[in-house]
Design a protein that fits this description.
single chain; eight-stranded mixed sheet; five-stranded antiparallel sheet; globular
């Protein structure tokens, strides 16, 4: 028996290699219509009233549906109905209640009425909150501790139900913005245009502190928002609701594409409010409820998140129009990229999306190369392996990536990173004296020229960024291209209008401005004291040694001493709030594609110290502020463009910011991933994507073929080691048998 031990062992090892040994997914999922991807940061909030980060949006936008969405393919971004039955109707009213035309002066608009009609027949995902008894009563209400003993997730409830989406569900969610226990991040902003939110918050706070406010059958302490009125928001009928805003606020339509304004059914709110639910992570913050194409079926944010197809989804049609071509014709960038091939087909195409938590970049990258992740970002660690740059700065895939059929998608993010000067600082902001302000302005201009952001992007971002000319990134209305779009304080144009390019002004010009500011060669013209500029930062920001060394070198070239003042995040925030910083590094991602959402960052009424707003530079310019008030409520057009041009020119001249760069997004995808298009504003992307399963399975099999010869070699080595022992054992057995036989023979004599 021992003689066959090694061959059997070798055969077993080789037989186990029929499938890829490195496949990280269950065998029963092989060949299934599943998209595999990864996430690095766990989502903190999935309740649409609180969620406000990109990490959370990846999940939430696939589950809940606001009334509007962005067209998946069109650029510039275009709003279109999602659950709404057409675009909302807007009526602008004057002080007498008379309707004004869309072109009316925003100053004359006293209120704006937004009426939204919801498409009938839309159903919620299956959910235990909708399950009912034979008599129509909620099946899972009034649950005891015993009832919840074995419950760990929504799947542990045996029965589910659904119902039709109504206008009241949207109103219920808007009321939740004022809930005193939820702390919505947009409450203050929305309260400016919906003053009734503060009235409702006061009423809810009073009710929450009272005893026995819940009616019979309701969970103790639960606030039934249907019992409270929100002035300015009303349900018209089952499919229609109306919002009355204070003044003119055309950007409100963009907010109607965000989860803050998605529906929340009263039944789900009541279901999750029961005692014992929160202790089991049974909350809307953990298990969002929606009408979208997917529903969350597994939530383990430390390891895995899974979205599964919502069986009640209505089957929205894939778009037939795209970018660069009219009416989905054969011409245009999207048609050439194959993004219109599924025109009119019902979505979603994918049955399940599996998100695996990856804390480290190398395992993430390796699994992508093995085909086990369908898409990947491009980090600094794998940039050189994935991407090559030409001498002209053009980006292309490496030969290894092209050989695998991998594609590179790039886009400019609607974001701005900037170094802000604190205009309340006497050195960089100037004092009350007009001459002091002028000297401080020239100082800021000199530093803006000296800090070469093209070089910074090249060194620290692998070239993944465009130098900023103003707060407005490409793709936002108001941005000028070519010569008209450069910052003339920092750049000059070389060449013709059509074929030229912007070139950063020389350090000599920066030194000239520094001398005019009263600091020749970086020394005070009167006292000879050195000029010292302080950067306030947090660990991980510009305070990192390599970046700090680069900044120090640029300041030395200007003759200026540079000091980094690192601090922890909370202390840094205190410095910004109190106006104790001098130079700081910030960034802003646009919430919606409108210039108002970026230009407001330098609006005087948003000053951080005086008003606790988003204007961290505390910049104030009366002309700019007046133009902003006119511009923010205007429709896009020539008149608005003219005002924006003047506002940008003011900012370039005053230089309250160093407009550092607009980051570029680099994304890799395998060739079997179809219908994928980058666009930071479009976040409900999963329903559009499709997987060529046969192509993926073939690639995985080819790229992960088991290497058998080491196993055969191990088997031979084992055989070589075991064989002498087996031979020795056999010889001893044979010898023993002979001795025994001889003994037995002697005994018979």
């Amino acid at each position: 028996m021992a003689s066959v031990l090694v061959p059997v062992l070798a055969a077993g090892l080789l037989a186990g290699c029929g499938a890829a040994l490195n496949d990280p997914y269950p065998a029963q999922d092989r060949g299934a219509n599943i998209l595999y991807t990864a996430f690095t940061e766990r989502p903190k909030h999935l309740d649409p009233v609180q969620s406000y980060s990109e990490d959370e949006a990846t999940f939430l936008y696939q589950i809940v549906e606001p009334p509007l969405q962005y067209h998946y393919l069109k650029r510039p971004y275009v709003l279109e109905p999602a659950t709404a039955d057409g675009m909302p109707r807007l009526r602008r009213l004057d002080a007498g209640g008379r309707e004004l035309p869309a072109t009316a002066d925003p100053a004359k608009v006293v209120s704006t009425v937004v009426e939204v009609r919801i498409r009938p027949g839309i159903l919620y995902q299956p959910h235990p909150a909708f399950a009912t008894t034979d008599t129509g009563e909620p099946r899972y209400l009034g649950l005891s501790a015993q009832d919840l003993r074995d419950v760990r997730g929504l799947g542990d409830f045996a029965e589910t139900g659904t119902r039709e989406l109504t206008a009241a569900d949207y109103v219920y969610q808007i009321k939740r913005l004022a809930h005193p226990r939820l702390h919505s991040p947009i409450f203050e902003l929305m309260a400016e245009y919906l003053p009734g939110l503060k009235e409702l918050q006061a009423a809810l706070s009073t009710a929450a502190s009272a005893e026995g406010e819940a009616t019979a059958g309701d969970p103790p302490g639960w606030l039934d928002l249907d019992r409270f009125v929100l002035p300015g928001v009303e349900v018209v009928d089952d499919q229609t609701y109306r919002i009355t805003l204070q003044g003119a606020y055309p950007q409100f339509l963009y907010w109607l594409s965000m989860p803050f304004f998605s529906p929340v059914p009263r039944e789900a709110d009541r279901f999750f409010a029961q005692p014992g639910m929160a202790e089991r992570n049974l909350t809307l913050d953990w298990w969002p409820v929606g009408t979208g194409p997917y529903m969350l079926v597994e939530n383990n944010p430390n390891a895995r998140m899974v979205l599964a197809r919502n069986p009640n989804y209505r089957g929205e049609a894939y778009p037939c129009e795209g970018e660069g071509g009219a009416e989905g014709g054969a011409e245009g960038a999207d048609a050439e990229a194959g993004l219109l091939a599924d025109c009119g087909k019902p979505m979603p195409f994918i049955d399940k999306v599996v998100f695996s938590r990856e804390r480290e970049g190398i395992p993430y990258w390796n699994k992508f190369l093995q085909g086990y992740y369908d898409a990947s970002g491009v980090s600094s660690d794998n940039f050189d392996q994935a991407v090559t740059l030409t001498s002209q700065g053009e980006v292309s895939l490496s030969q290894d990536m092209e050989a695998k059929g991998i594609r590179l998608l790039t886009s400019v993010s609607p974001s701005i990173f900037y170094l802000g000067f604190n205009m309340l600082d006497p050195l960089v902001g100037g004092g009350a004296d007009k001459a002091d302000k002028e000297r401080a302005r020239k100082l800021r201009q000199a530093i803006s020229i000296a800090l070469d952001m093209e070089e910074f992007v090249s060194i620290f971002l692998n070239g993944r960024g465009l130098p900023g000319m103003s707060p407005l990134p490409p793709g936002i209305f108001g941005v000028r291209a070519g010569r008209a779009g450069i910052n003339p304080v920092v750049y000059e144009w070389q060449g013709s209008d059509d074929d030229g390019r912007p070139v950063r002004r020389s350090v000599d010009e920066a030194r000239r401005l520094l001398a005019e500011a009263g600091w020749p060669n970086g020394r005070n013209a009167q006292t000879g004291d050195p000029l010292v500029i302080n950067l306030d930062t947090t660990p991980g920001g510009l305070g990192d040694k390599a970046r700090s060394d680069w900044l120090a070198k640029k300041f030395r070239d200007l003759g200026v001493q540079f000091v980094v003042r690192p601090t922890d995040f909370n202390r840094f925030q205190d410095k910004i709030r109190q106006g104790n910083a001098q130079l700081f590094f910030f960034g802003w991602n646009a919430d919606y594609p409108d210039p108002e959402n970026l230009l407001f960052l330098l609006h005087g009424a948003q000053g951080k110290v005086k008003f606790n707003g988003q204007n961290a530079a505390n910049y104030q310019n009366p002309e700019y502020d007046a133009l902003f008030e006119r511009m923010k409520a205007m429709p896009d057009g020539a008149a608005r463009q003219q005002i924006i041009d003047r506002m940008v020119a003011i900012l370039q001249h005053d230089a309250p910011w160093i407009f550092a760069f607009h980051p570029m997004s680099y994304s890799l995808q395998h060739g079997w991933v179809l219908n994928r298009k980058t666009g930071a504003m479009v976040r409900n992307t999963m329903k559009y994507q499709r997987i060529d399963l046969e192509r993926r399975d073939a690639a995985r099999a080819q790229w992960n073929k088991p290497v058998l010869w080491p196993l055969a070699l191990v088997a031979l080595l084992l055989a070589a080691l075991v064989a002498p022992a087996v031979i020795h054992w056999r010889r001893r057995e044979t010898a023993t048998a002979k001795v025994s036989a001889a003994g037995a023979s002697g005994g018979r004599r």
